[in-house]
Amino acid sequence: MDTKFSDQPDLESIQPERLIKYRVSDDGFAAEVLLPGFTYTDFDQKIGAFSFNILLSDYRSGETLVKAEMSFVYVDFKTRKPCPFPDWYNQLKEGQELTKPSERLVTPDIPHEAFKFDLQSAFSDIDHNGHVNQSVYVKWCTDAGTEAALKGHYSGFKGNIGTYPMNTFELKYVGEVLANEPVVISTWQDKDNHLVLHF
């Protein structure tokens, strides 16, 4: 497929000093961003973390099309653990405006009646950091939710969960899954709002 970037090098090969790579077309109407997976664990203010918001709008109508709120954690690639920002980064960011990371999500207690969905991570789920990519967890939750809906576990959801519009998806990463590991997904509806699903 011909794109505004067809005559340029592959995105993974540019900006070798950056983990997150990006480029904008000459006319300013197209952009590409490469966000490889990160090692996510619980984090607080003692480690390097920052948040930012992305808002994509229709430039003609002004209608908001996509809104994303993201938190990033600085990771030591040898220990695979969150760590403080290095001195060079702290000096570099002095001229930047970074928002405070959002509050940590509370890890929910799994109710005994939660629906259980078993699977095993595949090699195709793994990113270049050697663990399951962050997007795969969302897919797994969609698969588990669909199975739960088809088996009558939810009230109000009857089929493929992926066909229902999702307003908000909040994720808390507490560890990593590697290739060929067994995974059990528990899912249940919120006791106060049956339109809210937990995984």
UniProtKB/TrEMBL annotation:
Gene3D superfamilies: Hotdog Thioesterase (3.10.129.10)
Name this polypeptide is given: Acyl-ACP thioesterase-like C-terminal domain-containing protein
UniProt signal peptide: none
Natural source organism: Mya arenaria
UniProt domain Acyl-ACP thioesterase-like C-terminal: residue ranges: 116-153
